[in-house]
Write a structure and sequence with these properties.
- This protein is of the alpha/beta class and 332 residues long.
- It has a single domain, classed as Alpha-Beta Barrel (TIM Barrel).
- Helices cover 33% and strands 16% of the residues.
- It contains ten helices and twelve strands.
- The strands form three sheets. Strands 3-4-5-8-9-10-11-12 form an eight-stranded parallel beta barrel, surrounded by six helices. Strands 1-2 form a two-stranded antiparallel sheet. Strands 6-7 form a two-stranded parallel ribbon.
- Strand 9, helix 6 and strand 10 form a beta-alpha-beta unit.
- The longest helix has 20 residues.
- The chain is globular.
- The model has no long low-confidence stretch (mean pLDDT 97).
- Bound molecules: flavin mononucleotide.
- The site of flavin mononucleotide (FMN) has 20 residues, from strand 4 and helix 9.
Length: 332
């Protein structure tokens, strides 16, 4: 887990990833605050190999809360750049997850592939073909701004029941035009977003997509679909698939340590593409097992890194990794 990994022009110093985690602490206009600098900065000081900034909205109406980060305006770039600069100076590779919440967004201007609400929530408006083109353009602008802010890796959020996942899943997409119906049609928007992003995001830099491997409901996405989606993404030049699950509907599922790893493993083997495994992973032994047995290329620790920004430093026996300022605290 401490072996560096080369992805396009980027060398990720170890296999530990901080997955995107909303902090609900941006200003009402989506600007980063001191909290973000200190929060992400602490994990960079803690030598996390790859840090993803939380879901950052490509449109104001696509925010997940009133205080989510935004990247729909050029003025958002500067605050994000300060975080990136600090974290990169401490050796972390910096990623950003750009996102659109679709029917699970905050506010009353919800848009989605079809006018089907998330259970118990407001009914979204079905996007017209013209509006879809504008949404794609907004993703592209978000990617351009991410590059300007200095991010090394871009992640497109297509998981957890948000807009792009809603197009992929037959449970939320009942369109009868070229964006709905067949598997190819449901995949169309994600591929259009990838293509639009690639026009501004250099081919030399890694591009990642986060997917929910399964919907946990009959008629929804299955792991077989996810392998097919991942193959299609690989074919168009996506470098890294981040494998989560669920979020499209409310489902009760059994969870335990590493419960989503088998999905990352299947995608890695069958679509032959690098993956990130995530979900209730906290112990160095489990991380080591996943990496050593090549079940995934990276392991993301979410809540564990919220609890302990210095997880990597503590799991690694190389005392040199610790910041010199903390030298007197290092246990010999
Ligand atoms: C506070 C919090 C915020 C989250 N926000 C996001 C997000 O912005 N984007 C995303 O894809 N997943 C988000 N997640 C999911 C995490 O990235 C991760 O997949 C999940 O927490 C499971 O990993 P863990 O068991 O190691 O925490 C969030 C999770 C938490 C706890």
């Amino acid at each position: 887990m401490f072996t560096p990994y080369e992805l396009k022009d980027t060398i990720i110093p170890n296999r530990i990833v901080m997955p995107p985690m909303c902090q609900y602490t941006a200003t009402d206009d989506g600007y980063a605050t001191d909290w973000h600098l200190v929060h992400y900065g602490a994990r960079a000081v803690g030598k996390v190999g790859l840090i993803f900034l939380e879901a950052t909205a490509v449109e104001k109406r696509g925010r997940l809360s009133n205080n989510c980060l935004g990247i729909w305006d050029d003025n958002h770039i500067q605050g994000l750049k300060e975080i990136v600069d600090f974290c990169k100076a401490h050796g972390s590779i910096m990623g950003i997850q750009i996102a659109h919440g679709g029917r699970k967004s905050y506010g009353d201007e919800l848009v989605a592939p079809s006018a089907i609400p998330f259970p118990g929530e407001l009914t979204p408006k079905e996007l017209s073909i013209e509006e879809i083109a504008q949404v794609v353009a907004n993703w592209q602008e978000g990617a351009r701004r991410s590059l300007e802010a200095g991010f090394d890796i871009l992640q497109i959020h297509a998981a957890h029941g948000y807009l792009l996942h809603e197009f992929l899943s037959p449970l939320s997409n009942e369109r009868t035009d070229k964006y709905g119906g067949s598997f190819e049609n449901r995949l169309r928007l994600l591929l259009e977003v990838v293509e639009a992003v690639q026009e501004v995001w250099p081919k030399t830099k890694p591009l990642s997509v986060r997917l929910s491997a399964v919907d946990y409901l009959d008629g929804g996405l299955t792991i077989e679909d996810t392998v097919k989606i991942s193959k299609a993404l690989k074919d168009v030049g996506v470098d890294l698939i981040d494998i989560s699950t669920g979020g499209l509907i409310s489902a009760r599922i059994e969870i335990g340590p590493g419960y989503q790893v088998p999905f990352a493993e299947i995608v890695k083997k069958e679509a032959d593409i690098p993956t990130i495994a995530v979900g209730l992973i906290t112990q160095p032994e489990l991380v080591q097992e996943i990496i050593f047995n090549e079940r995934a290329d990276f392991v993301a620790l979410g809540r564990e890194l919220l609890r302990n920004p210095f997880w990597v430093l503590q799991a690694n026996h190389d005392k040199e990794l610790w910041p010199w300022q903390y030298e007197r605290a290092i246990l010999k």
